[in-house]
């Protein structure tokens, strides 16, 4: 049985990651942004395998507080929480406060989560850290739309590369993942794949990760994406 920590679990990909992990018999620590949120009530198993924590990745103090009450090992940490960013966000017309907020949530937030829960991950079985990024952050793409979002994902990719280097001696696997273009509030109704397909692919990759893939940028279907 695997123990997952999954952030941004109230809806979308995060919610289905929790559902599918529980259906597989695993244990899940799921984080939501607001206390009293009942978005996960439909997933309650009644056997203690689902634990819900309240924290906002915008605010490091809430992350540290949440981590302080978790004393169990974590096998797989999945940084899923994120935003598409504020408008306008082009290089010619930028909401700079919105850009900073996007970086705070999509880049600094995942690193803060990792640092806060690293002690738990170190005690995990075949420990793995996955951050949901986007191929929109790949430097091989020159598109300029949603540039704040793209920049935040390029930045977290670099952070994850560095983390993979530093944690490799401890046999902790670190990767970035592209979830696909998914039919969520963020991806829109015309996106390529369903939430269920994306979450299934992410979990399949997570469950099959070995140390030789640490430091990689991986698509939800298991293929590699150029940095």
Structure description:
With 227 residues, the chain is of the alpha/beta class. It has a single domain (3-219), classed as Rossmann fold (3-Layer(aba) Sandwich). Helix content is 37%, strand content 16%. It has five helices and nine strands; from the N terminus they run βαββαβββαβαβαβ. The protein has helices at residues 12-23, 60-68, 96-122, 147-167, 195-208; strands spanning 3-6, 27-32, 50-54, 76-79, 89-90, 93-94, 128-132, 173-178, 217-219. The strands form two sheets. Strands 3-2-1-4-7-8-9 form a seven-stranded parallel β-sheet, with helices on both faces. Helix 1 (12-23) packs across helix 5 (195-208). The model has no long low-confidence stretch (mean pLDDT 94).
Search tags:
227 residues, alpha/beta, Rossmann fold, 9 strands
Report the radius of gyration as a whole number of Å. Answer: 16 Å
**CATH topology title:** Rossmann fold
Total count of strands: 9
Q: How many angstroms does the end-to-end distance come to? A: 32 Å
The CATH homologous superfamily is termed: NAD(P)-binding Rossmann-like Domain
| Number of separate structural domains | 1
Number of helices: 5
> Structural class from helices and strands?
alpha/beta
> Strands of the largest sheet, in order across it?
3-2-1-4-7-8-9
Low-confidence stretches: none
Strand proportion, as a percent range, falls in 15-25%
- Mean pLDDT, as a whole number? 94
Overall morphology: globular
Tell me the helix content: 25-40%
CATH C-level class: Alpha Beta
- Element pattern in H and E: EHEEHEEEHEHEHE
């Amino acid at each position: 049985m695997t123990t997952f920590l999954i952030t941004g679990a109230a809806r979308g990909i995060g919610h289905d990651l929790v559902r599918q992990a529980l259906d597989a018999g695993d244990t899940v620590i799921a984080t939501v942004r607001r206390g009293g949120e009942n978005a996960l009530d439909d997933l309650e198993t009644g056997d203690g395998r689902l634990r819900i924590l309240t924290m906002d990745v915008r605010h490091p103090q809430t992350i540290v507080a949440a981590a302080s009450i978790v004393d169990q090992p974590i096998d797989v940490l999945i940084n899923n929480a994120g935003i598409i960013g504020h408008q306008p966000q082009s290089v010619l017309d930028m909401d700079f406060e919105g850009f900073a907020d996007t970086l705070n949530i999509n880049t600094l937030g995942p690193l803060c989560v990792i640092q806060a829960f690293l002690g738990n991950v170190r005690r995990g079985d075949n420990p793995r850290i996955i951050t949901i990024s986007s191929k929109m952050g790949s430097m091989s793409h020159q598109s300029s739309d949603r540039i704040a979002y793209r920049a935040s994902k390029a930045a977290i990719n670099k952070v994850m590369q560095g983390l993979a280097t530093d944690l490799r001696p401890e046999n902790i696997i670190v990767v970035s993942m592209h979830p696909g273009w998914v039919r969520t509030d963020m991806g829109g109704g015309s996106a390529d794949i369903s939430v269920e397909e994306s979450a299934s692919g992410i979990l399949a990759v997570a469950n099959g990760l070995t140390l030789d893939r640490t430091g990689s940028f991986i698509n939800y279907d298991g293929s590699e994406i150029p940095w």
